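A.,

Following up on our hallway conversation. Structure tokens first:
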């Protein structure tokens, strides 16, 4: 293995995305600190990593030695400043709330080293706003991973007008060390992936609402007709209806396009807590 680009990584947020990001960074050889606001959350995050690796062992895709090596490179803490202080790269994976993310980066800019790269995993928020007022804007970049992080090949890198070429180069190199295929996009609402993915999903929900076809047949049309690995309704179940609703509302506000209006069916399902895979019921039963 070649020398890892970022030897020390802090991942802030130990939910599904944060745990997956911590895992792939540790698999690449980085020493990782996984941080969240409570011991319960960080323990759940570490358990996610452990369970994912164990399934790989049981399927013969991962050896016990690799599993143990990855786990040995992941530490946990509830102290955000301590997690970030010695890091070469900080990746934020906290909830999609602009004020939360911006406050986090403003706080950490005075804690991390001057060479530390600051990255956000936001899927749709403006990076210019996420990093507004943060010292050293040249080291700030979007690193949008996809769920499940250890399996999905795409890494969407999002540059602001201030992101330095050296930052883009370093993060691109690291993305490849993580086993990802990086793409580079401008800081525009929804970037490339969320804008396209959510637009297709919303239209699929409108079709289901209008009785055009069943959820299974709408998804089958995109899988068999267009080569999508998973249909838009099933993807929405995996991502979470509440997550995609929030993204759609933000895109409608930022872009002003009617295609991002949230269907009544989606709002009703979210209100009824039919959020998809995480609640056991969405467009499918899980």
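Then the amino acids I'd put at each of the 286 positions:
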């Amino acid at each position: 293995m070649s020398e890892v680009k970022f030897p020390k990584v802090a991942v802030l947020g130990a939910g599904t995305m944060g745990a997956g990001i911590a895992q792939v960074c540790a698999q690449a050889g980085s020493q990782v600190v996984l941080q969240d606001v409570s011991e319960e959350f960080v323990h759940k995050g570490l358990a996610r990593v452990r369970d994912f690796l164990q399934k790989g062992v049981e399927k013969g895709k991962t050896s016990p030695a690799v599993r143990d090596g990855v786990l040995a490179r992941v530490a946990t803490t509830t102290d955000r400043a301590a997690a970030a202080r010695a890091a070469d790269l900080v990746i934020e994976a906290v909830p999609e709330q602009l004020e939360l993310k911006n406050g986090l980066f403003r706080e950490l800019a005075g804690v991390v080293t001057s060479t530390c790269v600051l990255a956000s995993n936001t899927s749709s928020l403006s990076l210019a706003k996420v990093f507004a007022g943060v010292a050293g804007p040249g080291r700030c970049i979007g690193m949008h991973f996809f769920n499940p992080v250890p399996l999905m090949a795409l890494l969407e890198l999002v540059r602001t007008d201030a992101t330095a070429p050296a930052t883009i180069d370093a993060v691109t190199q690291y993305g490849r060390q993580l086993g990802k295929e990086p793409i580079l996009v401008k800081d525009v609402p929804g970037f490339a992936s969320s804008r396209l993915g959510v637009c297709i999903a919303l239209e699929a929900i409108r079709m289901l609402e209008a009785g055009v076809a069943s959820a299974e047949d709408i998804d089958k049309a995109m899988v068999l007709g267009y080569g999508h690995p998973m249909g838009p309704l099933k993807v929405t179940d995996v991502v979470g209806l509440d997550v995609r609703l929030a993204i759609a509302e933000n895109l409608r506000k930022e872009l002003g396009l009617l295609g991002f209006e949230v269907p009544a069916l989606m709002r009703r399902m979210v209100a009824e807590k039919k959020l998809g895979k995480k609640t056991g019921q969405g467009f499918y039963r899980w």
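Strands lie at 8-12, 31-35, 74-77, 89-92, 117-120, 140-144, 154-159, 181-186. Curious whether your intuition agrees with the design.

B.
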